[in-house]
Amino acid sequence: MKLTKRTRLKVRPHETTFYRPDAAQESLHMRLSILGVAVIVCFGLLFARLWFLQIVGGKDYRKKAEGNRIREIALEAPRGSILDRNGRILVKNKNSLTISVVPAEMSNDPHVIGRLSRLLGMGEKEIRYKIEKSRAPNQRAVLIKRNVSEEVITYVREHQREFPGVIAGTMPVRHYPFRETAAHIIGYLGEISPEILKRKKACGYKAGDQIGLTGVECVYDEELRGAVGKYRIEVDAAGNAVKVLSRVEPRSGLDLRLSIDLDVQKTVEEALKAQIQIARSRRHGETKKKYTASGASAVVLNPKNGEIIAMASEPTFDLNEFVEGIDERVWKELNDPKNHYPLNNRAIMSEIPPGSTFKVVTAIAAMAEGLFNIHSPFYCSHVFTKGAFKDFPKYCWGKHGSIDLFNGIVQSCDIVFYEIGYTFYQRQIREEGRFLWDYANKFQLGRKTGIDLVSEMDGRVPNPEWKKEFNRGNPPFQVWYPGDTVNMAIGQGDLLTTPLQIACVYAAIANRGKIYKPHLMKDLEDEDGKVVKRARKTVMAEIELDPAFFETIERALQGVVRGKGTAGPTFEGFPLNEIPVAGKTGTSEIVGKQPTAWFACYAPVGDPKYVVVVAIEEGGHGGESAAPVVRRILEKLFNIQSEGEIRPSVGD
């Protein structure tokens, strides 16, 4: 373009001109630069996240996605059956129609629990409580109700879309055809507690598992429970099964064959129940109050191998009450003191002074220490006033006059054993020889027998050291007095035993000093009846004494059930010549309670097959209450026809 004069510019010397973009352009460039950087950073982060999800965490996320599509359901293994020694079923399984839920699949529909509540006739709170209490993982089915009707099962399956996460199926549950029979031996099941789970998690136990809580169900739980199976199914978005992907069948638990005889067990339980009612109809001779007969127990033991042929405890309970989960009202009744604690197995849990059944230990101790022999003379004037007992006299239940140790056992004369106890006390002061409690320990008193049951008690054999420790905070009561030894000599005072422990004492006499560990398991068998494990005959103790002492005591015990013996009237008419019985009555006193009746025996003498011990708490005297029960049991054991009502004996 050609410039005219008007348009020409004059340029002054040393003056330079520049082009300057405006502020808007400059700001735009800056924003574009920042945006570019941000986009690059975002894409970088996105690619990094995708790389992490696909490469680093891909395996885990695939598992989670698979878990939403595939449901794994446990198949409970049928527990092994429990049989008596002859193969008769005491406990078996039956299939129960059940409703369970998978918590993770219910969460999307808040109304499922409400529908389930109306269908099952259960409160919503109860259903939620069961889910929370189970502490099971979200993907594991939680049992809500057993034994539902077929109509409920059909309805849930036909309306599965309305019940996401709800499973209608079957489950093996325990069934007890004889209800109360051998309840304390068998025991019941319950949900595993967090404490037990911590101990047993390594053994494959899981939250929500049903395990044995008492009896042999508890002791042999691992053998009975078997191995859980499982199957995997593909489900759609509504939780409906599409197809089965895999299935592992559960393996049944082993069958447990017990040593008990069902027929004998029934007889023992019936005899105890009947005698409790008879005892409650009688009155105490001094107070004139009717006997409470708060409980009773019995043990039938094979002294040659320790097998328990029968063990009963009254009152008892119905095992079927626990199948559905014990009702709260029933649980309170079972634990109410007014009902005398039916859940307690008194044969191993009741710690009671053994009374005169202990006199056999005292007599053996006296002979072994050379203090007396079986014909040593005594005199019973009904009252004992020797030495310190002049101011604190002790009494015998009768007035026997001149009597020896042999007849002291036959007639259960307390004066004879007061004399023996006082003699032991005097030797104790002089620190000579062995003491009475040493012999009690020899007979394994004061310690568990180790029977294959839970909750067995130790009992107690007192001595000066025990008394000092027991009364640590009360020095005046720490002194061991003559009365402590004298009371022990007749099975009273602080001496405590269980019926099973007394059975072991009489087994020792029958075996001339050998005691076999008592047990209930005979063997464990697989599904085909093959024996997997057999019970071992285990010697618990061997009392090394002159066999003549045991033989002498045995002859005296035979006199107890004859003629003027304390159980003579009860065994009148029993074929003692064919089946000789060696037994001992006992009556123990507990402050604040009525007397407990005892009877312990074994038969036949010469070839002992059974030891039988019965204790009826607050039931009167041994001859009148316990001995008749033992006779009924012996009649069953030896197939003897009962001859009507049994005559009670009078005295200890």
Structural class: alpha+beta
Strand coverage percent: 15-25%
Shape: elongated
| Number of helices in the DSSP assignment | 22
The number of domains is 2
Computed Rg: 39 Å
Q: Quickly give the CATH architecture of the largest domain.
A: 3-Layer(aba) Sandwich
Distance linking N and C termini: 150 Å
Give a structural overview.
The protein has 652 residues and is an alpha+beta fold. It has two domains: 73-231, Penicillin-binding protein 2a (Domain 2), CATH 3.90.1310; 262-637, Beta-lactamase, CATH 3.40.710. 35% of the residues lie in helices and 19% in strands. It has 22 helices and 23 strands. The strands form seven sheets. Strands 2, 3, 4, 5, 10, 18 and 19 form a seven-stranded mixed sheet that branches. A five-stranded antiparallel sheet has the order 12-11-23-22-21, with helices on both faces. A three-stranded antiparallel sheet has the order 1-8-9. Strand 2 (82-83) and strand 3 (89-101) form a beta hairpin. It is elongated, with a radius of gyration of 39 Å. It starts with 22 loop residues before the first helix and ends in a 15-residue tail after the last helix. Residues 1-11 and 13-19 have low confidence and may be disordered.
